[in-house]
């Protein structure tokens, strides 16, 4: 029995509207009919679990989240399989990560069961919003956005005694429009994303707010994403504005920056590292300097680069533009990049055996 009380939306969006949205949802533009919510207070802990109609929140203008950005979130997807059933991917990893983020942002821990139940309760009401993929290249899904905000009305700087947790859902197509075309990356010149002891590893809104000026710089240079280097030396690659980075070497290694204070422990990142041996690659998590990448791409030792994340899935990188150099990986997606993409999507959409038991039926 679920703890989540259900208050059904008596005015759901019409079926025709929903079906049209699912045909071409874009990313993060449309939302389903319901949202899950759990309230936290210092005295009562987590309580009042509910699923209710999706709609605006009424918050006090003095709520802590507006002033001190005490906020964290997650990104997950729901996939429809050929038999109509709906599944999500490694949700226990998102539950663990939201609690790591909560610890860093001084927000309360939420139990794995409340986290997973909130998703199940929402998806069971909004099942019809999960798109059906039309082909193997189609990556449409229902994107879930669990988030936690500090809602106490209080302007002193301390951790909030009142917190609200929500899950909203949005039918989603590819994060980058224009098909599976290699994207261009701008190497941030003026901004860093995270430093030692900071919040870089946490999935908190502040990290993304801090990336926007650099992301705008990238867009002004005609690039789709920004790449940050380490704050201490500006020497090693960290991560992209909203996704992790991976490189493939000619001698069969899959390189990615090692976890630390500044790298998000991406579920897609982890899964690709786990899948690497079956694709004939040796995973290697370590520091990677921009120079190593630049020289490797020039002398043929680094043959492919891609971005990965829940929203980005596996997106090939064609070019990296720095102030004094360009790294060129060509106009076409790399072979291993596309193999990773297919292997992962086949598991997620139930087209390949889920040997690792990553999929959870909702
Ligand atoms: C995700 O991949 O789920 C994220 O939260 C990243 C964001 C760029 C959408």
UniProtKB/TrEMBL annotation:
It is an enzyme of class 2 (transferase). It comes from Brevibacterium aurantiacum. Its cofactor is pyridoxal 5'-phosphate. It catalyses: L-isoleucine + 2-oxoglutarate = (S)-3-methyl-2-oxopentanoate + L-glutamate; L-valine + 2-oxoglutarate = 3-methyl-2-oxobutanoate + L-glutamate; L-leucine + 2-oxoglutarate = 4-methyl-2-oxopentanoate + L-glutamate. GO terms for biological process: isoleucine biosynthetic process; L-leucine biosynthetic process; L-valine biosynthetic process. Keywords: Amino-acid biosynthesis, Aminotransferase, Branched-chain amino acid biosynthesis, Pyridoxal phosphate, Transferase. The modification N6-(pyridoxal phosphate)lysine is found at residue 203. GO terms for molecular function: L-isoleucine-2-oxoglutarate transaminase activity; L-leucine-2-oxoglutarate transaminase activity; L-valine-2-oxoglutarate transaminase activity. This is branched-chain-amino-acid transaminase. Belongs to the class-IV pyridoxal-phosphate-dependent aminotransferase family. Transmembrane segments: none annotated. It comes from the Bacteria. Gene3D superfamilies: 3.30.470.10, D-amino Acid Aminotransferase, subunit A, domain 2.
């Amino acid at each position: 029995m679920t703890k989540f009380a259900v208050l059904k939306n008596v005015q759901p969006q019409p079926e025709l509207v929903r079906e049209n949205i699912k045909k071409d949802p874009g990313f993060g533009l449309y939302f389903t009919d319901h949202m899950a919510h759990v309230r936290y207070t210092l005295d009562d802990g987590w309580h009042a679990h509910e699923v209710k109609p999706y709609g605006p929140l009424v918050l006090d203008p003095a709520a802590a989240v507006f002033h001190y950005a005490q906020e964290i979130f997650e990104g997950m997807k729901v996939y429809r399989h050929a038999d109509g059933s709906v599944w999500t991917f490694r949700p226990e990893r998102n539950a663990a990560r939201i609690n790591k983020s909560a610890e860093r942002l001084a927000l309360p821990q939420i139990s794995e069961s409340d986290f997973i139940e909130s998703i199940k309760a929402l998806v069971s009401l909004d099942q019809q919003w999960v798109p059906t993929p039309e082909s193997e290249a189609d990556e449409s899904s229902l994107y879930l956005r669990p988030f936690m905000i500090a809602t106490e009305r209080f302007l002193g700087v301390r951790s909030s005694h009142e917190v609200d947790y929500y899950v909203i859902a949005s039918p989603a197509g590819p994060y980058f429009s224009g098909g599976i075309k290699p994207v261009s990356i701008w190497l941030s010149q003026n901004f860093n994303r995270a430093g030692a002891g900071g919040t870089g590893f946490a999935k908190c809104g502040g990290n993304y707010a801090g990336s926007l000026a650099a992301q705008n710089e990238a867009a002004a240079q005609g690039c789709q994403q920004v790449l940050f280097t380490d704050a201490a030396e500006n020497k090693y690659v960290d991560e992209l504005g909203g996704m992790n980075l991976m490189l493939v070497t000619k001698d069969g290694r899959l390189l990615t920056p090692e976890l630390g204070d500044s790298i998000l422990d991406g579920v897609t990142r982890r899964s690709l590292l786990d899948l690497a041996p079956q694709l004939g690659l040796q995973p290697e998590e370590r520091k990677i300097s921009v120079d190593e990448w630049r020289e490797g791409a020039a002398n043929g030792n680094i043959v492919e680069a891609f971005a990965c994340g829940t929203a980005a899935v596996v997106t090939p990188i064609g070019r990296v533009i720095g102030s004094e150099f360009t790294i060129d990986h060509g106009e076409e997606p790399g072979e291993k990049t596309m193999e990773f993409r297919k292997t992962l999507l086949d598991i997620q959409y139930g087209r390949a055996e889920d040997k690792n038991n990553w999929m959870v039926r909702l």
